[in-house]
Amino acid sequence: MLIVRTFRIMTAMALLVTTAPAGAAKIEIVMQNLVITPAEVQAKVGDTIEWVNKDIVAHTATTQQSGDFDVMLPANKSGSFVLNKAGTFPYSCRFHPNMKATLVVAP
Question: Which residue segments constitute the domains of the chain, with CATH numbers given?
Fold first, then answer.
């Protein structure tokens, strides 16, 4: 009886471990030569987006409609944001509106 009970507990623990969500990712997006690369990123809630500004001028990563994020990126610096909700988020640089990209965030 004890062996059966121990086996059931170990099986339940193994199922919990294998169904646990994967750790959050850190995703790098580069701003260089007034271009955002990649232009579309797939991510998940909890992931961290790090924008790296390789230009000699400041940029922002600003959602166009939702107001969900507005990250200031001084010249040759980086900034980050932890994704806190699912959805599709078009964004651009407030200083250079032709710099556009999209984050697609899954739950």
Answer: 23-106 (2.60.40.420)
